[in-house]
Amino acid sequence: MSNKNIFFINSAPNSDTLLLLIEAHDSAKEDGNFVVVFSTSLYDYIRAIETMEPFSDSLTDDVHVGMLPLIFKAPIKPGIKIDGIDCTYENFEQIQQKISTQLVEIFSWCNKEKIDVFFAGVPHTMSPIFIKTPSASMRTRRQNAGTMDEDLSLKIFEELVIPALSIEMNTEPSVKLVIDALDKYTEHKSSFLSDLITVLIASELINDENAETAADTAADTAADTAADTAADTATEYYKAWLSYELLEEPTVIQTGITCEWVPKASYVLAKFSSGPGKFKTLNLANNDLISEAIKRGMMRIEPVWKRCYIMHDKFLNDIDDVVAIFLARCLTKENGLYLFRNYH
């Protein structure tokens, strides 16, 4: 059994998140290492920032905070409260400010404490997983048409999604149960199961010696047959993670003119540079590595984490948290799973 302790941030953080991270980190000091995992890709964040930053004073309908990864922005869902504030359009600016401030503090603290931070999400356009109802919009499916693995999606549907929802809803397992949940809790009656993929990737590729061995083997092979540059390329291709350094203290940026449908808001500006560092993002160049990690994760029968903490937004806008939590419970030592919902 592993002595790893892991903290998943699978939702936008609330005002409790940093304190929970510190407590979890302190608890792990004497009995194992500690890592933080974000359910998004650092590539998606960097791309959004590179697009938004030049227009910060005058965001438009085409360039706005809605471009940020989902867990970096406030939801608009009346009746749901984050930090006691109703998630309405009118309150978006206030809630987004709190989320941006929390992200600044989390990034700064992790950097100061030299904690390994993994961005283990897979963008929708590259996801091998997709499930939908018969009446779902085809718009979402087109996003990953080139990478979707129908057999793997069906296996996850049958072996993880159905039993997870059955236990969560305390009812008999069935296909109809999943269809009803997708209809009720997702906008497009479909899901890429992003949080589940994050848990599977983390279980297999964080501190994975096999990934390092594959990279070394590929590099050696390339070195025997081509120039050193080919070896470097092969090594990079087989790496599970690409490292980044946080160049300076992150800040909260206030946007200027509001656009038509996204309120005036703020966002976290964190400048990352490729190279040796404690922030790591999943290498998206190797689709086979991602798919194989997902398959191996589904086959695990022994826990991989001593303690697992999950900040989640179960049923807020998807069903993926339910399935991710179901799997994480199986991959964590008994009584070692701690769950924190970011809304009320």
What does this 3D model show about the protein?
This protein has 344 residues and is an alpha/beta fold. The protein has 10 helices and 14 strands. The protein has an 8-stranded mixed beta sheet, sandwiched between helices. Strands 3-4 form a two-stranded antiparallel ribbon. Strands 6-7 form a two-stranded antiparallel ribbon. Helix 1 links the parallel strand 1 and strand 2. The chain is globular.
Q: What attributes does this structure have?
A:
344 residues; alpha/beta; two-stranded antiparallel sheet; 14 strands
Helical content stands at 40-55%
Biggest sheet: strands side by side, in what order? Answer: 11-8-12-5-2-1-13-14
In the residues, how many domains can be counted? Answer: 1
Give the low-pLDDT segments.
209-223
List the helices and strands and how they pair.
Blueprint: E1 4-9, H1 17-28, E2 34-38, H2 42-52, E3 77-82, E4 85-87, H3 92-112, E5 116-119, E6 131-132, H4 150-169, H5 175-185, E7 190-191, H6 194-205, H7 209-225, H8 228-238, E8 241-246, E9 251-254, E10 266-269, E11 272-274, E12 279-282, H9 287-299, E13 305-312, H10 320-330, E14 337-341
Parallel strand pairs: 1-2, 1-13, 2-5, 5-12, 13-14
Antiparallel strand pairs: 3-4, 6-7, 8-11, 8-12, 9-10
Helix pairs in contact: 4-5, 4-10, 6-9, 6-10, 7-8
